[in-house]
Amino acid sequence: MSTPEPKKSPPKIFDRSLVSNRLTIKAKDSRDFITDLVCDDLFERLAPISRKFENALILGPDAQLLPEKSNSAGGEISFERLSTLVSAKVDAENLRLPKDDYDLIVSLLDLQVVNDVPGYLTNIHAHLAPDGLMIVAAIGGNSLGELRAAWLAADAEETGGAYARIAPFIDVRAAGSLLQRAGFALPVADIEHHLVRYKSPLSLMHELKALGATNPLADRPKTLVTKRLLATACAQYEALSSDPDGRIRATLEILWMSGWAPHESQQKPLAPGSAQVSLTKVLKGSDQD
C-alpha cells in the first residue's frame, strides 16, 4: 500500500507578519476610509435579511475597527469580534475559532492578504451551524489599476525593470468557484465599484498604509524606494489619472462573497428530468408567424 503524499502548503504570496507590524504601529485611534466604507456596506447587506442571528462573529485585521452591533430584518446582531493580524486572536492561515456553531460569520478586509484562500473559506464553513451564513468583503477585481500602472512606468523609467508592488486581487468569477469548492450553498459573489478621489498620489499611499495594504507581497523588492523613484511614480500617476482640479482618481472594487452552510430547508435546484412541461412545447408555443 503506497504512502499518501503529504499535503503541500500553499505558496506564500503575502507577508502577513509585515502587514501586522504596519497595522500595529499606526495610531491606535486612526480609522481609514476603506474600512468605514465596507462597514457601511455590510450594514446595508444585513438589513433586509429576514433572520435573527444570535451567535455572530466578525473577523478582520484589527478587531478595534470592527462594529460591535448591526441589524438584520430579524433584529439586532451582537458581534463577537476577533483580530487576525493586530494582537491576533486567530490565525487566518489555520483558522480555529472559539465555536463551531455560529449562525453568522463575517470577514472584512482580510481575505486579500490570505495565502490559502480555499482553506480559509473551508475553515469558516466548518465553524458554521447548519443554515449559517458567511459574508466576506475584500479588496478585489481591478482595484488600484492606476497605482499599478504608475509604479510600472516609474520602475521602467528609473531602473529599466518591472517589479510587483501592488498585490494581485481575487476576480469575481473566481470567487464563485471558490465558494462552491468550499461547500457553500446558494453562493453569491459581486463587486461594488467605487471611484475615489485623493488630493495627491501620496494621500492615496498613506491611506493604503493605514490599511496595512502597502505592498504586502512576500516576494517584494528588497531595496528601499528612493525619493526619486517615489517622485517619478507620483508624476506618472498624475499624468495618467488626474482631474482638472488637480485631484487624482483611484479605482476601488470591493469583492463581496456570501454563502450558506447547507441545510435541508434551503431551496434546491430541480433534478434533471423532473420538469412537468416539455421545453420543446414551450418553444413551439412562443413561435411568431
Plain-language structure description:
With 289 residues, this protein is an alpha/beta fold. It has one domain: Vaccinia Virus protein VP39 (Rossmann fold), CATH 3.40.50. It contains eight helices and seven strands. The protein has a seven-stranded mixed β-sheet with strand order 2-3-1-4-5-7-6, sandwiched between helices.
For the report, how would you describe the main beta sheet?
A: 7 strands, mixed
Number of domains: 1
pLDDT averaged residue by residue: 83
- Which range does the strand content fall in? 15-25%
> Given the C-alpha coordinates, what overall shape results?
elongated
The fourth-level CATH homologous superfamily is Vaccinia Virus protein VP39
Helix content: 25-40%
Please trace the helix and strand order, writing H or E for each element. HHEEEEHEHHEHHEH
Derived from helix and strand composition plus strand pairing, the structural class reads alpha/beta
The end-to-end distance, rounded to whole angstroms, is 68 Å
Spans where pLDDT lies below 50 across 5 or more residues: 1-6, 282-289
Number of strands: 7
What is the rounded Rg? 22 Å
CATH domain class name = Alpha Beta
Map the helices and strands:
Elements lengths: L15 H10 L7 H14 L9 E5 L8 E4 L2 E9 L18 E7 L8 H10 L1 E12 L5 H14 L13 H10 L3 E14 L2 H10 L16 H15 L6 E13 L18 H7 L4
Parallel strand pairs: 1-3, 1-4, 4-5
Antiparallel strand pairs: 2-3, 5-7, 6-7
Summarize this entry quickly.
The protein is built from eight helices and seven strands, in the order H-H-E-E-E-E-H-E-H-H-E-H-H-E-H.
Pick out its properties.
single chain, alpha/beta, Rossmann fold, seven-stranded mixed β-sheet, about 30% helix, disordered N terminus
